[in-house]
Amino acid sequence: MSAAISRLSEGGVNRFTHAPLATDKSRAIVRPSPDLAYSSCPYDVSTGPVMIEVPSIPARYWSLSVFQANTDAAFVRNNVESGGAPIRVTIAQAGQGVSPGRAVARVEGAKGIALIRVLVDDRSRFAGIDAARRLAACRAVAGAVPR
After folding, report:
1. Residues 50 and 91 sit within 8 Å (Cβ to Cβ)
2. CA 58 from centre of chain
3. Per residue in 90-118, pLDDT tens?
4. What is the dihedral of CA 112, 34, 53, 111, to 10 degrees?
5. Residue 93 · residue 107 · CB < 8 Å
């Protein structure tokens, strides 16, 4: 997992990078599916929480997963569970304060990866899906700066 975090961090920490649709050569994500669009945010909560916001995406299925550095899933939610509404979650370690009224993913360790997966069952619709997923946000809570 540390290799994946390092590789995905090349685009920056606490921000989403949106990969193109997978091909037989794609390997940023292990065994990527050609029917899924992936967006990843390597996060670092060592100096404070990180907020993730995923808008409603015009696809039959999409999800957000937050993985800890040990590969455990700390949070998983999909559009079916959210009723198609945007998903908002704060990633934080024990003892870090978070805004009330927002879902919280408590993680062990400071680093990990938040991953959006979107089913692209009709490639002619990819432009709209891609535009929506690019509105997703991953950012340190105001005042918190990752090391």
Report:
1. yes
2. 17
3. 999 999 998 888 899 999 999 999 999 99
4. 0
5. yes
At position 116, the amino acid (one-letter code) is I
Neighbouring C-alpha atoms within 13 Å toward the C-beta of 66? 29
pLDDT digits over 111-131, tens only?
999 999 999 999 999 999 999
Other Cβ atoms closer than 10 A to 61:
15
Distance CA 128, CA 58 (A): 7
* Number of CB atoms found within 10 A of residue 90's CB: 21
Q: Three-class SS string for 15-38?
A: CCEECCCCCCCCCCCCCCCCCEEE
